[in-house]
Amino acid sequence: MTYEQLVVLHAIVTEGTFRGAAERLNKSQSAISHMLKKLETEIGITLLSREEYRPSLTPSGEVFYRQSTRVMQQMKELSIVAGNLNARQEPEVFLAVTATFPLKPILEIIGAIKEEYPATHIRLSRESMGGPIEQLLRNDADIIIATMDGVPVEQVEALSFAQVTIAPVAHPDFEPARSSHMKTINEMQSYTQVVVADSGSGEFTQSRDLLPGGFRWTVSDFAAKKEILQAKLGWGGIPTHMIEGELARGELVILNVEGYQRRQSQLFQMRKRDKDVGIVAQAIWKQLRG
């Protein structure tokens, strides 16, 4: 059994076909089939059922695959350690952070890393909705902070990072905010909901809390959204850490809308499983993990 055989098995499972695995690993489809068959022969287990168009793990294959992913992760970590023993710091590290999370904790970590590795250029991008995961899966971003909505979990390593509270708010003089009774979806459809645009192409849509059938105004960021709400031109969800002062002063109030109560959004730090990790990116990852 070899590490390369495990990589082939992982590629077949995650891509769903032998052809997809071949394209991903830049090998011929016959080579992929041969390597898997050789692995099954060596261990005496049929890992994949070929009865359908898409190969699927057998019951024994499920157990073997779960353990193999752990072995691959351990091998990756060992490779990182070995590489970092002689590595020079990489020229650039790219982080993509969801716009719902405050930058201050991230900047404190980056500041400390920059002192240790001053030659590495740090790119920090604020992304909305599916933007961070799209940057990661395109191999642009090295590390992202985002929700797991729509994320192909077999392709990423993810650790729980933080929670943010999202609350529907409006100016106290905005019509739906003048009373505390719960507004139905039908009632709210005649009022403009302000939403932040997805910074991705839409391939990994993470839009949430969109009122069905209502008027909508799309803006580029939360700063613009907050100004529009303060101008009494609409309502919408905003992370509460961005509006603590406005809520305390009564300049914005939390709305009571059917199906749109304040909620906790769980964020994760993520990186691709199959992407090489440089010494600076690894240091940032560890600092984020705490």
TrEMBL record:
Keywords: DNA-binding, Transcription, Transcription regulation. It holds the Pfam family HTH_1. Residues 1-58 form the HTH lysR-type domain. Gene3D superfamilies: 3.40.190.290, Winged helix-like DNA-binding domain superfamily/Winged helix DNA-binding domain (1.10.10.10). Belongs to the LysR transcriptional regulatory family. This is LysR family transcriptional regulator. It comes from Algimonas ampicilliniresistens. The lineage of its organism: Bacteria, Pseudomonadati, Pseudomonadota, Alphaproteobacteria, Maricaulales.
